[in-house]
Amino acid sequence: MRRRAALLLPVLAPALLGGCGYRAMTAPTSARGGDPGLPMEIALVTDRDRGGNDRQRQLFRAALQANLRRSTATPRLERLVVSVNVQSQELVVRQDETPSRVRITATARFAASRVTPPGTTPLPPVGGTVVAVEAYNFIDREYFASDVAREAVETRLAEQLAERITEALTVAVQ
Questions:
Q1: Long-range CB contact pairs, 32-39, < 8 A, 24+
Q2: What is the pTM of this model?
Q3: For the packed helices 143-173 and 54-70, what is the interaxial angle rounded to 10 degrees?
Q4: What does the pLDDT look like over 86-107, one tens digit per residue?
């Protein structure tokens, strides 16, 4: 009996805990209507889908949703697809061939379909590419400081990409 209850837990948990803000990790992240302040569908493809960092995905999604909630372009858009690619490059190399500075480049390609009234010709999609570049120092023998610096860079990159995408969408839809 306990085993059956344990097997049903992933199915019943969203229904039982829905009122407290719980959302299953396996729930679809691009479902329309998931956020009442954001009436559009967002599909996000990041490095996580190729084995990268899940934290980057969370930071970028949160920053993008926050920016789109404030944008005047959001009511005119129906679906947004964003593909993010993050690459790091070791810059300054010490004599012992260890890196002392790392540059991270984030590139986001996006395409948004516009809301079209019934019976009219669909409008062409809006799209483009935005790039953000940040760097941090890799401090030898202080891994924690380097890790905190890397996390700060990831946060800034997510915010910059989200802001640039929102600006490009706002200008294109006007």
A1: 35/65, 35/69, 37/69, 38/65, 38/68, 38/69, 38/74, 39/74, 39/75
A2: 0.72
A3: 40
A4: 888 888 777 887 778 889 999 9
